[in-house]
Amino acid sequence: EPEVTQTPSHQVTQMGQEVILRCVPISNHLYFYWYRQILGQKVEFLVSFYNNEISEKSEIFDDQFSVERPDGSNFTLKIRSTKLEDSAMYFCASSVMTGNEQFFGPGTRLTVL
Amino acid sequence: GESVGLHLPTLSVQEGDNSIINCAYSNSASDYFIWYKQESGKGPQFIIDIRSNMDKRQGQRVTVLLNKTVKHLSLQIAATQPGDSAVYFCAENGPGFQKLVFGTGTRLLVSP
Question: Quick check: A95 and A103 in contact, CB under 8 A?
Answer without folding.
Answer: yes
